Structures are given as structure tokens and as C-alpha cells.
Amino acid sequence: MQGVLFDLDGVITDTAKFHFKAWSRLAQEKLAVTLPASFESDLKGISRIDSMNRILKFAGLETKYSAEEVNTMAQFKNELYLNEISKLTQKDILPGIENLLDQLAANKIKLSVASASKNAPFILEKLGLKNQFDAIADPAKVAHGKPAPDIFLEAARKIAVEPSQCVGIEDAKAGVEAIKAAGAIAVGVGSSTDLNEADTVVANTGELTYSILEQAFGKK
Ligand code: BG6
Ligand code: MG
User: Fold this and answer.
1) Over 90: is that where the pLDDT of 219 sits?
2) Would you say 11 and 4 are in contact if contact means Cβ atoms under 8 Å apart?
3) Is 9 labeled as catalytic in the residue annotation?
4) pTM, two decimal places
5) What pLDDT, in 10s, does the model give residues 123-135?
6) Which residue range is the domain that position 34 belongs to?
7) What separation in Å is there between the alpha carbon of 219 and the centre of ligand 1?
8) Which residue, of 85, 109, 141, is where some domain finishes?
């Protein structure tokens, strides 16, 4: 194992509730629909525009708006979301993550962020973690969102490590699929039923350690 590719939302900090709150308000105010609670997990790992399109489809309005109108709505959601994440601090880092980053750095493992979020640099800044990573892949620069492998390939490329020498960490099913499609080893965080395609699954971030990642890598 030479590199670790981190998803951000749900692995480094828990932002799903803020995404859901912002999408729910947009759906209510602009589309007059109430999103079911299941959307909170269904939209994990899904890009902003793909999430917007799924919500329009749910509302039965997928053909009503122009691309420009759809973009304006997605921007409105992002403003609501930014308002929430601007309050993040070091206290919002998920359990075990700071320790894991220290262990990996001590073992000279390269660390890269493979998030679908265009807000990843801002969030890492707020958490005080930006300098802990060797690279952050830019989702605006890749052609396809998760479950396509693109963002993980880009994250590995940016640290100059072959994907086959990397472990990827994800909380979303689409993300685990993306890691596997990139040819890296997948460690899932969450339910082993939902994340059954991962090579190893831990129940929560507190269980993520250097040795767990090494063991997962050894399985290949
Ligand atoms: C992912 C989240 O990390 O980023 C998704 O799990 C989100 O819910 C996606 O839609 C895009 O995020 P952003 O910040 O660019 O709107
Ligand atoms: Mg995630």
C-alpha cells in the first residue's frame, strides 16, 4: 500500500445531513415537493447536478426546466449548503480520522482526496486538515461522477501512485463501485449489506486504522 484515496463526505466529516437539509428546502420552495428521508442516503456520493436531476425526476418535473434554470436551482442549493458548512470546525472531524491520518503519514503513505464535492477544499480548510493531504482531486476536471472510476483515478494520478497500490475509503455504494472500477482496494464505512462490494467493511470511522487498511490491501 503506497497511497490512500479518501472520500470526504461521510468519511472525514458528516455532511449528509446538511446536503439533505439544503436539498429539502430547495425541493419545498422551488418544486413544492417534500423529499422522503431515504434521499439523505440515496444522494451520497452523487454529484450536485446528478442529485438535482434525481430530485426533478422524483418531482415529475424532469422536462419542465431549461439547463440554465436547473443550474440556477443547483446553485441556490449550494448557497444554503455553504451557509451550513461554513460553521464546521476541527470538532466536526469524524472519530478516528485524525489518528489515521497521523499513522499513515508516519508510514510515508501518500494521501489524496477523491470527493465528488466541489466544496472539498473549503471543507478541509474549515476542519483544519488541508495540509494533511498530498493532493485533492478536482471533480470539475473529470468526465464522469461516481460510480464511474474517474475521480479515484485522478486522485491516484495526483499522488503519482498506481491505483492498484492504493486503498480507497468510502461510505457510499456508488463510491465503493468507483474504487473497484478504478482497480484499487475498497474499504467501506457503514453497513456491510449496503457496501457488500467492498473488500473490507468497518462499521464506523473509529475502526479505521493503518493496520486495517494494510490488512485490506493484503487481501488482493
Ligand atoms: C458528495 C456528497 O461527496 O458530494 C453528495 O456525498 C454531493 O451528496 C456531492 O451531492 C457534490 O457535492 P457539492 O459540494 O459539490 O455540491
Ligand atoms: Mg461519502
Assistant:
1) no
2) no
3) yes
4) 0.94
5) 999 999 999 999 9
6) 16-85
7) 30
8) 85
